[in-house]
Specification:
With 141 residues, the chain is an all-beta fold. The protein contains no helices and eleven strands. The protein has a single domain (5-124), classed as Rieske Iron-sulfur Protein. The structure holds FE2/S2 (inorganic) cluster.
Length: 141
């Protein structure tokens, strides 16, 4: 798991585009946190390694397209609508906006801004001010 280099307090270099295999979530360390970086044909995304369902390591899951069915005989697969499938219970979240596939929850996958400058990938991770520090959440996530 490679560590990032910070080029500003919030902007972290996590590698070159070529280091990110298509449709695979690669976990990098950014300021001590696991961040999943995913390169797809549609774009490059950075996500938290924490599933909105029960906090599992969603970055160990798989990147998938969207499977829909209007009947058992009428199934389609949309390769352009990419989602991350959590390996724990199979919930899926769209990479482009973090919403849950099928609307099974209103919780969203946490995403981080990302910039690509001359084929180098930078994740923006703002450290919270001390007065904005997160408080631990209960088991219900
Ligand atoms: S923790 Fe990810 S689907 Fe349950």
């Amino acid at each position: 798991m490679p560590a990032s280099e910070a080029i500003s307090p919030d902007m972290h270099h996590v590698g070159s585009l070529a280091e990110f295999e298509l449709d695979v979530c690669k976990i990098v360390q950014v300021d001590g946190r696991d961040v999943g970086v995913i390169r797809t044909e549609q774009g490059v995304y950075a996500i938290a390694n924490r599933c909105p369902h029960m906090g599992g390591g969603i970055c160990y899951g798989t990147v998938t397209g969207l499977m829909t069915a209007t009947s058992p005989e009428n199934i389609s697969y949309d390769e352009t609508r990419k989602a991350m499938r959590c390996p724990w219970h199979g919930w899926e979240f769209f990479l482009n906006d973090g919403t849950a596939v099928g609307g099974i929850t209103s919780r969203r996958l946490r995403r981080f801004p990302l910039h690509i400058i001359q084929d180098e990938v930078y994740v923006i991770l703002r450290m919270p001010r001390p007065d904005q520090a997160e408080t631990p959440r209960g088991d219900d996530g």
